[in-house]
Amino acid sequence: MKSSLLTVATIIFCLTAVYSQTQPPQSTATATPSGSPEVKTVDSGIATTVSTSASNVKPAGGKPVLPPEKANPVKLPRFAKPPVIDGKIDDEVWKNAVVLKDFYQIEPGDNIAPSKPTEVMLGYDERFLYVAFHCYDEPDRVRANIPKRDDIFNDDYVGILFDTFNDQRKAYEFDLNPLGIQADGTGNTGGNEDFSLDVVFH
Questions:
Q1: What is the 3 state secondary structure string of 42-73?
Q2: Model confidence over 124-141: pLDDT tens digits?
Q3: Residues of the chain under the 70 pLDDT cut
Q4: Residue 114: what are its φ and ψ, rounded to 5°?
Q5: Residues 14, 15, 18, 19: what is their CA dihedral angle, to the nearest 10 degrees?
Q6: Which residues, including other chains, have CB under 8 Å from residue 79's CB and lie 6 or more apart?
């Protein structure tokens, strides 16, 4: 399997991404543990998303209806030691992470089974929340360019949203394409996004 280190971000959080033939795009993120995260991946025009809140499937005129494994709160394990942020998820500590999978595909489609599987692993320690994405795809179908910052949304990318006020109205967003180009900003329930926010990445 071929893999390449894409990027490492520090300060408040860390993000990395790796692509390989049988287990392609992965990325790792850490951020201060507050609010509810929503994670998303976009692969060659296919958007997959999952939220830790029960808001993904909404029948006409009714409340959200989710299977039990998605309706129940996610309980994150506390890591005894932090994982190495190197674009890989082979540390022993990741075996203790909670795993989210069976995402819904929302584009194209409307909450259908995804064309490609995605797994998200989460855990925390006294300082950080750790999130690892494992996105499956054929290497020759991975779409990645070197655009300007915040202009990665024509590529494949992974991202996470933090609802730090826990009001399901506004979130901080952090995204990376396969080559480590960053996008960061805020979004709200009206669909408005503002990418003028620039967090320091390394």
A1: EECCEEEEEECCCCCCCCCCCCCCCCHHHHCC
A2: 999 888 888 888 888 889
A3: 1-64, 201-202
A4: -70, 150
A5: 170
A6: 93, 96, 97, 123, 124, 125, 130
Spatial CA neighbour of 85 closest among 144, 25, 30: 30
Cα–chain-centroid distance for residue 153?
Answer: 14
Residue 148 tokens, joined: 């300007």
Whether the CB-CB separation of 79 and 127 falls below 8 Å is answered with no
Is 0.70 topped by the overall pTM? no
Report d(CA 52, CA 36) in Å as an integer: 7
Phi and psi at residue 131, to the nearest 5°: -130, 125
Pairing of strands 118-124, 98-100: antiparallel
Q: Contact 6/15 with Cβ under 8 angstroms?
A: no
pLDDT (tens digit, 9 = 90+) per residue, 14-47? Answer: 433 333 333 433 444 444 444 445 665 565 555 5
Residue 183 has a pLDDT of 92
